[in-house]
């Protein structure tokens, strides 16, 4: 026990002695959390739009104003002709073009139907889909307004219909930060847990100091625990600090008992540290260890449902998330914080995580004995 | 000059001897592109929903059928009471609940108006709104099917044309994005680590007393990696083209030159990082912490830049990945020539020079 304590002391000293490492561990993550929370937003706002109004009538101008006052679109240019607007689209200056045909107002009254054209730059498919959805919605509302004004039509007198109402549970204001900040925290905690632990052991190998340690009376499990525990503590501290910042700056909801988050994180970190340890047993240089860790982490992170929902992945990819520890943590931290999920909801995930921890760490320790 | 080539050859040996790293360097892009190209989309399919149907008449049953027949939704449970909704949401499997009150069909036929309620788990606001939009459209289509298309007077019909990517494939955005991510991190990390490694192991001093000039040493270390990153870029392009049908509408030569430029930019960033750090761990953490999330989030790869707050949009301008993604999309999807991508190219070039300049100065002062 005393041995472990001394090793811990040595490891902590080493971490804290490295002046350039301290800001990276403590400051950079918080800054990223603060900055990136604003970046991670799917809400479409301020799309630049070019309007080509060949009609120039009252209604065509009203339609344009409706689009611009919605907050989704900002006018880049009122173009005189289609060609000009298309140049803007091509040069990335405009995201979409609304073309209102000549005799728009006249034909609307006379022919009862008139077409307006929307041209959307669809390189970003989801953005284009949303942009069109918003625009179509605004045009539809404008259309109803015109109808009501012109024909004095009462909507309730209309034909039989379904009356669809919506409710957004848990996040009625649709605040995207409540969703993203816990997720970004997971990434930051993961980076600390998996990377530093693995590299730290390989470093001793690369420097040749591991042989010196091997001839000391330090037992191997002392060594391993001494190497991993500091990062376990640092990562949990990081989580606490990040949550505090999130609460103070973004007013993150803490619907559930935050203890579940920490309990889960504690087990989750065992998995990540074990992964780092496992990778370190396979590699000889920090460079190798880093690349392998990076490879797994980038897959884990991008396929965790953090940025793109797991539901929208193909089935085989959804199956893959069953062995992705990051996906579980992202899911659990969001469940507890936003929905107040409790023991009965997360216990299954906690069980899976414990299982992962047991497997990864046993393989790592077994492999460690063989190689060192 | 001869010494220089010998030095480059030695560095190449170093790289090729380390089979494991080599395997990762080349295997990684392949796995990542295939995985993400297929897996990362924002399209909705087979989302689990629950139904609370208090009416259980033909209308309500057919409504639910319509919703599931679309392929977007799959009913995982039928609930029996309002209280069960909360429980389902908390367990986290179900993303939307369709509530159909009693006498649904009756209300529709006699009251002309039948209420349906859609509840979504908006803890993910984006998915929440998307699901409601989808379900809404399906329900309206069903209504039209029963009542027949009602022709309303004074109709403004929006006609849409999606330019450059008519089928709205998200892979067209993800291939350039993943490519940028891999090149950025691999190049920046590789170089910063190799150089700091020499420092950490003390072999840098040995190199410095050799007749090679410091600048030559750095160049010799970096050149093999330029070749490596370029090959990685090539293989990603090839996969994007053959596996995912990414078009290359513009000039291929221009595209390759731009890739080379971006590799250089990333490598010079790596040199810069190595010039300010002395240990591999620090170098790696800087490239990880400083580059991973900003490259994903501030490049327009996942989230659209124009929706971000102004200061962040300004900040994104110093993220090299942003410019490279613009270049890639313009050349591959729009068929732009050098004239159209001149600005982002100049910016990337300028960044590269800037990074190199600083690192050369830093490097000299450190080693003298």
From TrEMBL, chain A:
One of its GO terms (cellular component) is plasma membrane. InterPro entries: ABC-2_transporter_component, ABC2_TM, ABC2_TM_bact-type. GO terms for molecular function: ABC-type transporter activity. The chain crosses the membrane at residues 21-40, 178-202, 223-246, 258-279, 291-310, 348-368. Keywords: Cell membrane, Membrane, Transmembrane, Transmembrane helix, Transport. It comes from the Bacteria. It is found in: Cell membrane. This is ABC transporter permease. Belongs to the ABC-2 integral membrane protein family. PROSITE patterns: ABC_TM2. It is a multi-pass membrane protein. It comes from Chitinophaga lutea. Residues 146-371 form the ABC transmembrane type-2 domain.
TrEMBL record, chain B:
It comes from Chitinophaga lutea. Belongs to the ABC-2 integral membrane protein family. The lineage of its organism: Bacteria, Pseudomonadati, Bacteroidota, Chitinophagia, Chitinophagales. The keyword rRNA processing does not apply. This is Transport permease protein. The chain crosses the membrane at residues 21-40, 171-195, 222-244, 250-273, 285-305, 341-360. The keyword Cell membrane applies. Keywords: Cell membrane, Membrane, Transmembrane, Transmembrane helix, Transport. Gene3D superfamilies: abc type-2 transporter like domain.
